């Protein structure tokens, strides 16, 4: 599948502002902007296994498209929601457990890059990954 492989973060746009809107403190925002995130994606039909490793943590997430699951961000923010496939794009809709506000996430292959977009409270951030 198109998403399969190892991806390393190459650059980010508006990521610090996004983290600020999410309530991440200034020290974690500074560290988060340089987290050296690497993700490994494996897709088998509707089932995805994603391994994330960064300066802060290494985790494995397994989910099935359309099936709700719980997930914690690197800063400890707890979410519940699901991913779905819309065309060639992975679309995630999650709600924070603490304030019920929605976090949207999109993953799409553009050229030879994986583009990941987050939207929270009107603030949009983009992280671009290259195969690694």
Automatic annotation (TrEMBL):
This is Fatty acid-binding protein, intestinal. Keywords: Transport. Pfam families: Lipocalin. SUPFAM superfamilies: Lipocalins. GO terms for molecular function: lipid binding. The keyword Calcium does not apply. The gene is FABP2. PROSITE patterns: FABP. InterPro entries: Calycin (IPR012674), Fatty_acid-bd (IPR000463), ILBP (IPR031259), Lipocln_cytosolic_FA-bd_dom (IPR000566). It comes from Alligator mississippiensis (American alligator). Belongs to the calycin superfamily. Fatty-acid binding protein (FABP) family. Residues 5-22 form the Cytosolic fatty-acid binding proteins domain. It comes from the Eukaryota.
